[in-house]
Write a structure and sequence with these properties.
Keywords: Lyase, Metal-binding
Largest sheet: 4 strands, parallel
Strand content: 15-25%
Shape: globular
Organism: Undibacterium flavidum
Distance between the termini: 50 Å
CATH architecture: 3-Layer(aba) Sandwich
Number of helices: 4
Number of strands: 4
InterPro entries: CbiX-like, Sirohydro_Cobaltochel/CbiX
Protein name: CbiX/SirB N-terminal domain-containing protein
Length: about 120
């Protein structure tokens, strides 16, 4: 039976407080997906970085990973850096299914939620 994990992939920053909204998102998502392991990973400046997060999941038997970039736009990190990292991870773990989805900001539901937030801010 396949063990699924969802990796929320964020940029990372020097200030530890920057990660707090992402940690809350990870917790909320985990509560909604009790049968899926939900992890948070970073591109840089914070731990765990994506290769380490994948290694940790694989070492405890997860074999079906989805990487969801929590970025608003499809900039250089998502368009260039992440696909290279995912290709390297697929080469390192050929027995593992690794799927990468679009950046969160490319999803209409995410954009609608942000629009609603912006509209509420002027009320």
């Amino acid at each position: 039976m396949s063990k699924k994990a969802l990796i929320l992939f964020a940029h990372g920053a020097r200030a530890a407080s920057w990660a707090q909204p992402f940690q809350r998102l990870q917790q909320l998502t985990q509560q909604s997906l009790p049968d899926v392991k939900v992890e948070l990973a970073f591109l840089e400046l914070m731990q765990p970085q994506l290769p380490e997060a994948v290694e940790n999941l694989v070492s405890v038997g997860y074999d079906n990973l989805t990487i969801t970039p929590i970025f608003l736009g499809q900039g250089g990190h998502v368009l260039r850096d992440l696909p290279l990292m995912v290709d390297e991870l697929r080469s390192r773990y050929p027995q593992i299914q690794i799927k990468q989805v679009l950046a969160a900001g490319e999803d209409q539901g995410v954009l609608s939620a942000l629009r609603d937030y912006c509209l509420r801010s002027i009320e």
